């Protein structure tokens, strides 16, 4: 038992597509310290929470300029997690039945657009010094909180459609 697919340190310019990562531990697909990769047309589901409390369908850590597109993310702690990762593009994904659809933490300049997010606790959660991100044209439905911004500044949120959820903004730096 372990991670489904790992793109590790200094592994740049890879194309990961048409895979199924299911019932993996911690992360279905994990990009760590790798840049300019394309992750598309994958399914990441039912990720089992590891000893660190992480269960991400797709996890992008300390990585820049990656494209995450057209993936299906379901039944994970977080469908997609960007942590300490800048200038990534997250587009046209479906995230449903996760604790959080898309989680952005300590990450700057990312674009999250045209995603369908449903039945998650958070549709999009922008947290802790995640500044200058763009969240646009997403459809968020049946979630406790559609878009949450906490302790992050200068984010642009526009054109999103909310069904039975809303936007929450809080923190000292808003």
Low-confidence stretches: none
Distance between the termini: 41 Å
What is the N-to-C succession of helices and strands?
Answer: EEEEEEEEEEEEEEEEEEEEEE
Count of distinct strands:
22
Considering DSSP H and I runs of 4 or more, what fraction of the residues is helical?
A: under 10%
> How are the strands ordered across the major sheet?
1-4-7-10-13-16-19-22
Q: What is the molecular shape?
A: globular
In DSSP terms, counting alpha (H) and pi (I) runs of 4 or more, how many helices? Answer: 0
| Structural class assignment | mainly beta
Q: How is the biggest beta sheet arranged?
A: 8 strands, parallel
Using only CA atoms, what is the Rg? 14 Å
Mean pLDDT: 96
Model description:
The protein is an all-beta fold and 174 residues long. The protein is built from no helices and 22 strands. The strands form three sheets. It has an eight-stranded parallel β-sheet, with no helix packed on it. A seven-stranded parallel β-sheet has the order 2-5-8-11-14-17-20, with no helix packed on it. The protein is globular. It starts with a strand and ends with a strand. The mean pLDDT is 96.
């Amino acid at each position: 038992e372990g991670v489904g697919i790992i793109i590790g340190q200094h592994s740049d310019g890879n194309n990961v597509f048409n895979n199924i990562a299911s019932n993996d531990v911690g992360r279905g697909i994990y990009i760590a310290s790798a840049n300019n990769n394309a992750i598309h047309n994958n399914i990441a589901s039912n990720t089992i929470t590891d000893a660190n409390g992480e269960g991400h369908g797709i996890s992008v850590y300390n990585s820049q300029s990656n494209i995450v597109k057209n993936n299906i993310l379901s039944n994970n702690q977080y469908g997609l997690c960007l942590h300490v990762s800048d200038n990534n593009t997250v587009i046209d994904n479906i995230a449903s039945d996760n604790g959080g659809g898309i989680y952005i933490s300590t990450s700057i300049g990312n674009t999250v657009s045209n995603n369908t997010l449903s039945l998650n606790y958070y549709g999009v959660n922008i947290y802790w010094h995640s500044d200058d991100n763009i969240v646009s044209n997403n459809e968020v439905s049946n979630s406790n909180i559609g878009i949450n911004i906490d302790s992050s500044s200068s984010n642009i949120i526009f054109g999103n459609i909310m069904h039975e959820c809303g936007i929450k903004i809080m923190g000292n730096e808003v």
